């Protein structure tokens, strides 16, 4: 096995750049990829950190040798303070058991009926837009997509109407996740148990989310019927060996994971889709013409999407440029070798889809928004990983893709969205990629 540690920035450079790295981690990861290549190594407080930017290295860690790595990293430990040990943050046998349990909720038969939930929720939003469009009043598309996707995931996975609580839940979600990022970037921040204004705000947000989840479970149990959805599957689950049901904590953690991961990530991707279409109106016209040619004025269904390839390519390209889950981390359980370089035991391995998606070897003119590049797809299967890869591929990736395409098609039939600010929008790399300060847009009827 190679003993060659990957090239990378020196300790002196890292110390000098600490404030910049904390405030703009993506720029740092992009820079070292350009300077040092597909595998980059450095040390932080004695911990070896390996950034893998080449698709072959991604394949090695996330697929070929995935058992050599786990999720015991700062990223997932921080997320677990909100989601608990659900599918997103768990590992090993508990993760596999829960994955098998949840999989039927994302079956082909269920996905084929997704339009029955997505379209009514989207049309309710569009109705609310009408007076705003008439008055020329901008809307924050970031907030709109958050509320819409929360309602959809609530109805699709838990048979719950969250429209009344959407504002409070989305606000609590962002508060909780933003606090996680703040703590990760500020290692000397005061512990969570100290009642600082930020910590108190985090506690209130977590209380709001816990209350929403507890109410879902209580309502279902009162009916005496578990229901034929993901919540019902969790409530009916039994351990194959002991016959024990899931604990209240396990149920809470899985619901919280699906509720947060199932709406915040899709909302981020949709927000950036509208931003990109506003800056490249010719692509919006192409997709809208296709939608109107195929559908006329009737709403899209899941079965229509294969006849709307331009919509699919627009969303795929938005995911390439702004992958919501912009960083994936793993802990090396044992010594390994990637592309000829040594990965020490216990090293932190960092894979950034944002950086991988900008490798010019696989994506010509990578910074350009060009949906047509998906006519043929990526030159390397692991050069495009917006939903991760390998066994830990996001369980809801098909759900998210169909949901987003249905929303895009329906909105395009009725509106063109124009950015209020002509200059480029500043991006915040938080738990997901979000536009700084929201994304105000004007609605123009078409």
Automatic annotation (TrEMBL):
Cofactor(s) demanded: heme
Provide the alphabetized UniProt keywords.
Heme, Iron, Metal-binding, Monooxygenase, Oxidoreductase
- Record bears the keyword Metal-binding: yes
Residues folding into a coiled coil are none
Q: A Gene Ontology molecular-function term? A: iron ion binding
Q: Any keyword Glycoprotein?
A: no
InterPro entries hit by this protein: Cyt_P450, Cyt_P450_CS, Cyt_P450_E_grp-I, Cyt_P450_sf, Cytochrome_P450_Monoox
| Positions bound to heme | 394
List the Pfam families. p450 (PF00067)
Superkingdom in the source lineage:
Bacteria
Can you tell me which family this protein belongs to? Answer: Belongs to the cytochrome P450 family.
Q: What name does this protein carry?
A: Cytochrome P450
């Amino acid at each position: 096995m190679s003993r060659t540690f990957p090239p990378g920035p020196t300790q002196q450079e890292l110390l000098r750049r600490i404030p910049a790295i904390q405030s703009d981690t993506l720029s740092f990861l992009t820079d070292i990829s350009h300077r040092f290549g597909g595998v980059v190594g450095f040390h932080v407080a004695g911990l070896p950190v390996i950034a893998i930017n080449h698709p072959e290295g991604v394949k090695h860690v996330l697929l070929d040798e995935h058992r050599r790595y786990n999720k015991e990293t700062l990223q997932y430990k921080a997320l677990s303070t909100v989601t608990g040990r659900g599918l997103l943050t768990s590992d090993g046998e508990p993760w596999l058991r829960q994955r098998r349990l949840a999989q039927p909720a994302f079956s082909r038969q269920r996905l084929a009926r997704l339009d029955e939930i997505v379209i009514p929720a989207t049309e309710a939003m569009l109705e609310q837009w009408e007076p705003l469009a008439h008055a020329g009043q901008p809307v924050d598309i970031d907030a709109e997509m958050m509320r819409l996707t929360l309602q959809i995931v609530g109805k699709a996975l838990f048979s719950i109407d969250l429209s009344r609580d959407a504002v409070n839940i989305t606000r609590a979600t962002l508060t909780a996740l933003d606090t996680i990022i703040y703590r990760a970037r500020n290692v000397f921040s005061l512990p969570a148990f100290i009642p600082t204004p930020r910590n108190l705000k985090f506690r209130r947000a977590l209380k709001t989310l816990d209350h929403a989840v507890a109410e879902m479970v209580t309502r279902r149990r009162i009916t005496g019927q578990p229901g034929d959805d993901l919540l019902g599957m969790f409530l009916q689950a039994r351990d194959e060996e002991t016959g024990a049901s899931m604990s209240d904590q396990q149920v809470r953690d899985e619901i919280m994971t699906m509720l947060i991961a199932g709406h915040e990530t899709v909302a981020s991707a949709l927000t950036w889709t509208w931003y990109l279409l506003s800056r490249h109106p010719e692509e919006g016209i192409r997709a809208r013409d296709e939608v109107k040619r195929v559908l006329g004025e009737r709403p899209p269904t899941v079965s229509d999407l294969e006849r709307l390839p331009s919509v699919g390519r627009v969303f795929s390209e938005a995911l390439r440029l702004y992958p919501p889950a912009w960083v994936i981390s793993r802990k090396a359980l044992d010594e390994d070798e990637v592309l000829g370089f040594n990965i020490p035991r216990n090293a932190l391995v960092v894979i950034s889809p944002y950086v991988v998606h900008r490798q010019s070897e696989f994506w010509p003119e990578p910074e350009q928004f060009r949906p047509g590049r998906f006519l043929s797809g990526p030159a390397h299967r692991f050069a495009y990983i917006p939903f991760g890869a390998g066994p830990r591929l996001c369980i809801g990736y098909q759900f998210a893709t169909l949901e987003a395409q249905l929303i895009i098609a329906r909105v395009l039939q009725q509106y063109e969205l124009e950015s209020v600010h002509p200059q480029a929008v500043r991006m915040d790399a938080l738990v997901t990629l979000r536009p700084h300060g929201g994304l105000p847009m004007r609605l123009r009827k078409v």
